[in-house]
């Protein structure tokens, strides 16, 4: 066990022995450190004004990721490097190429969003090569600018690459790597402040133990839900157990027909692997939150949170995913579908946590699609999210699984609709009949995202879209206005 | 995409660096990108600085039977709790009408209305204490929609009418006639920096308030009024805002007043900083409108008579609604000649937050109204809407008088539109789109070109005045101050360019300083796009006074005529002598010449009779046009803007890069308003979309992959504005209307373009899908 947290900040190891487990990185920067370059625009992960970059040693090399400082908790920085906008310019005041490009293209007007953009762009520049416009859109989806209309920022995101590699930064990196290596350990990290306790185990067995001992604790994975309980609902979470250090939960592997995704795997890390097997699920992940949210958030958390509007459960359920739960030494495996009992109620016992999500590999010839409907394409919560998995053999529906989020109190299968399709010819008439059945499956609500009528209608139409996309012969018609349009035809 | 990269701005002998018409960088750009630009929340806090939380009404309409703050007063860390009873002066922060209480006293009129404030050692303690306050409400029936308000004749101000010609007769006689109702949604400003005020108590009755405001003078007056002290006791300062867009015109007075009262009561610095949710719930937005129209037109689509009923949601108080609703009336014509026209305006009082200024100030809603009418006419006649637009454009020599009897003297809309039409290849693309739609059963494309003509000046004539203060120090460095505020629009930079030009010195010799009511008094809001027009002129006047003194001094000293003193880039030629600006300044100082001056400007020519709604409310008009192309998924109503082409007239631009930024940003903001930005109220009267998780402004990918934008190179202000430039803040917002009309065009395709989709704004995917289904059903008969 090690008391207190250690992280690299401003080139040195910062040691803090006692810290409020749910103090946000943003508040610490602004209110404790007096580092006011990082801004608060929303305190809920949606605007990106607070974007900072975390450096982390992964398999021996540094990985840099942008996250929202407003919803990340301080102790989760342990063992990482925190990079903020103040770190970019060189000591003599010369601007970093990202900053220079933003100045030269007039990428700032009021400037309040700018530090956040600079950090998102910086994370991209140190991690990947010249981006396409689509890639820029994805990298910047979590940074809102109300002034510029984005044009100059997009231009700067290209132009900054003209400056070439990050020589100075990479030089400094060597030193940071040594510092971070010094901090790496398998011991549990603990800290506490005013009676609130924080545990960050590094091994899953330690996690199982500490959670059994503290069954009232709140589990935190990426904090992209939990963070908001603190910043928006102003809740006192009491004891917190952080999963982000647990090695076993960060693993992902293909085994006996399943892609096994550890509960601590971020969207960003799961993305490529999922896309490989389910291209359209990959497209769905691209549209979950933003780069910052995907860098922190996990599929495990999306499931465990139990929300009826989480985007991965419908896709996972349609694909027939299973869930591995663990309590102490005991494990059990269930169909993910049965995990969602009712609104706000999941099949998870006291002291039990999600260990992994098992996504079956698709059968040859089966068709999978997922569709996310929201007001804005990027970084929006679904009004409805539908996923379809069908085995069509010789024009007959052998099997079909349809699951929607946003249509009921839980992610829910469309059983009546499925029944109207199974065993039938995969043609327009069958599909129209099945669409009419959907009223029996869902009784959606009206809220700020959409009306009941729209939800019902769009859900029906998505079945039709799935049919169109999977039944076309000859020249393919376009059915999509965003993303990789070819995904409609794979 | 245009290359925004700066031209090399070397100070060669020929030209100063950062003078007018140059692509001079925003003065704070290097600070923005490095996190060193200081916003109010970044100012170091004084020891003991209190954090203030404002307690809000939970009911849309209720009598307050009692407010019990006793538990809050005793709570941890609390320094003081203020209610209406604790206000030393007058309980009002309204801009005009005296109807905005700082703390609701007996009555609450919207969810989110300020009722009390708790100041504590931390915001967490202040918020926690506020939750202990017990309010006993007696609920009253609430009016939550414009329709209800119209029905109950609930208004904040009496209805208004503008009339020219005989619309009733023209309508009766017209060959074709259409009537419809248009819904136009509101819009949250979503400045990235929320409202904030930091008050620092001074001696006697003095207080300094750092306020994120576009209108320091009004904040000053309101703070003084709340404290019950004279205006001269209160100083308001603002270096920069993290965005304003009109949202920080009248409303900052509330937060500044609360902060100032806490500071004076406790003797400690006090900060009011709203978090995003509180900001969105407590503060007003763009007015949503219901518009009914009745239009008569001939076979060519020319409008013969038209009647509009414009009803807007003022919210619980008047705020600036009068002028906003007026401006909607002034822009009901947009760029079109309306011979016989009647416009009625209703300013509805509802139990929702009081709506306020927002970029365009009612103008955009007026423009959406008439553009919808044009599209309906086009669909009815089976013609290209652009053809109908052209048929109705204002003339240059005849058909050029507005419904408010102002002659349009500077009309360039034909020329500009024809140029854009060619640039954007409108006709060919429109034909291609029709062909595409024939063969694409689910994804439909649409295209539209819409113009904008926007009147520049405050329609409240006396507001069209500005002041500036320029000091020259003995080393030749210049200190510049004026009444305009910087919210990202580049005003400070432009005004500094003007001053640099006047003295023929490099821009970096001109120090831009925070707007401060102690330096330049009695200023108007930085609003109505007038910032550079007015403050540029005032600063020029101040600089010119000093320059003239220097010229006279040099002429006298070197025994030459005044016109032999020539101001060249970086130097002054005095007869045979040549000297630098600092040299001349030093000599003038030693000769006891004043090196400081104020400057003042009042916009000429304008006059307006508010009773009759006639006159010349505007000094001139700004023009522009945009073509937007969209793709719509007719199964889901989702859509994407694929291409944008903009041509906009900023006159002779003071700073093309900054102006381009304004044009692009405004267009995107306009598109957001009309597409994804939907304000939804819960049936209980609470705003349901009070954070970016639910209120969706455009993101990066919402910008069209192909985006061509150009400032009109023929542009030149017909009036003698500052270097013949034109205002740019608001007009381009209305370029976004082309996106709404392009969506309408795409939807119309499912009915063979014969049925007008009647697509309301914001055109969310839900609204688009509904319109698709409606058109399909109507087409099927
Ligand atoms: C700006 C923003 C945008 C978003 N957009 C989307 C979106 O488009 N689509 C979408 O679906 N979601 C979206 N979300 C929510 C999404 O990010 C979360 O649901 C995320 O997947 C949760 O993962 P996490 O690791 O952050 O979980 P946390 O926030 O750390 O935890 C979430 C919940 O799960 C519990 N938990 C986490 N891991 C475990 C475990 N292993 N065992 C037991 N309990 C556990 C926690 O106790 C908590 O109750 C968004 C969030 C934000 C802030
Ligand atoms: S402050 Fe908006 S994302 Fe963090
Ligand atoms: S520059 Fe103002 S929000 Fe981006």
From TrEMBL, chain A:
Residues 3-88 form the 2Fe-2S ferredoxin-type domain. Keywords: FAD, Flavoprotein, Iron, Metal-binding, Oxidoreductase. InterPro entries: 2Fe-2S-bd, 2Fe-2S-bd_dom_sf, 2Fe-2S_ferredoxin-like_sf, 2Fe-2S_ferredoxin-type, 2Fe2S_fd_BS, Ald_Oxase/xanthine_DH-like, Beta-grasp_dom_sf, CO_DH_flav_C. The keyword Flavoprotein applies. Transmembrane segments: none annotated. The keyword Metal-binding applies. PANTHER family: XANTHINE DEHYDROGENASE. This is Xanthine dehydrogenase small subunit. It comes from Aestuariispira insulae. The lineage of its organism: Bacteria, Pseudomonadati, Pseudomonadota, Alphaproteobacteria, Rhodospirillales.
From TrEMBL, chain B:
The lineage of its organism: Bacteria, Pseudomonadati, Pseudomonadota, Alphaproteobacteria, Rhodospirillales. Its cofactor is Mo-molybdopterin cytosine dinucleotide; [2Fe-2S] cluster; FAD; Mo-molybdopterin. Belongs to the xanthine dehydrogenase family. InterPro entries: Ald_Oxase/Xan_DH_a/b, Ald_Oxase/Xan_DH_a/b_sf, Ald_Oxase/xanthine_DH-like, AldOxase/xan_DH_MoCoBD1, AldOxase/xan_DH_MoCoBD2, AldOxase/xan_DH_Mopterin-bd_sf, Xanthine_DH_Mopterin-bd_su. Coiled coil: none annotated. It holds the Pfam family MoCoBD_1. The keyword Metal-binding applies. Residues 34-141 form the Aldehyde oxidase/xanthine dehydrogenase a/b hammerhead domain. One of its GO terms (molecular function) is iron ion binding. Keywords: 2Fe-2S, Iron, Iron-sulfur, Metal-binding, Oxidoreductase. It comes from the Bacteria. Transmembrane segments: none annotated. This is Xanthine dehydrogenase molybdenum binding subunit apoprotein.
